[in-house]
Amino acid sequence: MENRKEERGASTKVGDFTELRTWQAARKLRQELYRLTQSFPAEERFGLAAQIRRAAVSVTANVAEGYGRFSYQENIQFCRQSRASVYELRDHLTTAVDAGYVPGQTCRELEQRALEVIRLLNGYIRATKKLKEAGGIRKKPEAK
Prior knowledge:
With 144 residues, this protein is mainly α. Helices cover 66% and strands 6% of the residues.
């Protein structure tokens, strides 16, 4: 069984994790959060700003690492960890609003992006579970 991504009912081969819509959406969220934290006060450089950045990196890194694992079950577990990091980000955004670092409207926009990433992760997990249940054996991506 080859690595596949499923989009709107169609299954296509994926050559690299960067082709996954899930990873692409998480990357955009990470980029926006990095820009946002640049405006945080200096005293938050090693506090909330760093926590937001670490959690944002964790989202994309876990999707990438799961993609590179041999078994479907390992991929699913890394996607679950990625999803948990998105939930962590949502909590950090609430903290940033409460501290007055982020306007409510900006938080709501980022919250919507985060929820979209969660939706995509859930879909990727479901699709991977289906491949696992179908009895496929996942091959490692071939080097090019």
